[in-house]
Amino acid sequence: MKKLLLLSALLCGHVAHAQKLTATERKIVASVQQNMPKNEKLLEQVVNINSGTLNVQGVREVGTVFQKEFEALGFKTEWVAMPASMQRAGHLVAQRKGTKGKRLFLIGHLDTVFELDMPAGKFTRLTDSTATGQGVNDMKGGNVVMLAALQALQAQGLLKNASITAYFTGDEERGGTGPEARADFIARARQAEIGLGFETATNLHTVATARRGASTWQLNTYGKAAHSSGIFRPDVGDGAIFEAARILNAFRETLSKEQFLTFNPGLLVGGSEVVYDAARARGQVVGKTNIIAPTATVSGDLRFLTEVQKETARTAMRAIVAQSLPQTRAEITFTDGIPGMAPTAGNQRLAALADQCSHDLGLGPVAAGDPGARGAGDISYVAQYLDCLDGLGVSGKGAHAAGETINLKEFPKLVERAALMIYRLTK
């Protein structure tokens, strides 16, 4: 009897939520469910194509698969080429122009971190609710969520007057250098009103209203080469390696407690002779234990939530670098990368829309996640120009590592939510 009462309560709750959907919205949900087997096959197809950023042919091959799917939905597609010297595949753009509702800019990327020489498996079902494969959640699954949502709307004739640009970059994981890499991306985004990113969802109940930015820094320290027996003497000094250690430890002591700010020295070389190749992230060094090192190089990253936080941190780091140990000197340079996506009122309104759609679908609440838990992403390049929401892709675990998974149980639910959001924004 108790089991019957519980089942009745659950069914009543589902019906109550379903009644919050209009007849058109219920048809959208039905279309999503009908198309899921086909779209899971599509996901398997693109996952089984290696598209590491530097595998230009593979990135283009994945893009061509999506290009055909978007053209079938009536989108006009084109490839935005990058300079040959950049050695990147370029970007796929699919566009429909209309006059109804908000102008949307939907963001995905075709590349993965898995290059041809890295271990990464094909699409493989592990259980009824889990599958693995290279880029299955970051972010080939997210690309399919976007496409599947639009397919459900097209099936009901709801894209006729919508203004939507779907933009798939080819080098999100290892961005090409120079302003050309994102110039077209930014220009097209500025013509829209709302940006929706389909990067990995933390889970069914979390979206991203903010993301940290990422930049790099390089520290060079110099000391006086001499016999090790004279180290710390006033005329010899402390050497380049101790100066690098002083600076790194001062960074840690001064800045490590600040919320959302992180800085990581990822490579350090020091000795009598140092050759550092920044492009290849490699260093060669020669040194002896009885020689005080005259030079050291450290390279690292700096992650931050806002531009103000980034600049404040850089000012503090420069001040620390300027306080040299005896007979040493140091210099630090900073290189901008992906900007931060600050949490704005407009972004929060989009999170509220996701929450409402989720409730109306009977899926439970949705809230903004911790920005510190997410890395940098393409959406941050345009977040200063329009309201943005990210984390609308598939859920899963282990992104950027062999064994990366997708939660197949949540996959259709996330497509339903995305379709409902796009419909309500464009109707």
TrEMBL record:
Signal sequence bounds: 1-18
InterPro entries assigned: Bact_exopeptidase_dim_dom (IPR036264), Peptidase_M20 (IPR002933), Peptidase_M20_dimer (IPR011650), Peptidase_M20A (IPR050072)
All copies of domain Peptidase M20 dimerisation, residue ranges: 209-327
UniProtKB keywords: Hydrolase, Metal-binding, Signal
Keyword Hydrolase: yes
SUPFAM superfamilies per UniProt: Bacterial exopeptidase dimerisation domain, Zn-dependent exopeptidases
Domain of life: Bacteria
Pfam families with a match to the protein in the record: M20_dimer, Peptidase_M20
Name of the protein this chain belongs to: Peptidase M20
Species annotation: Hymenobacter frigidus
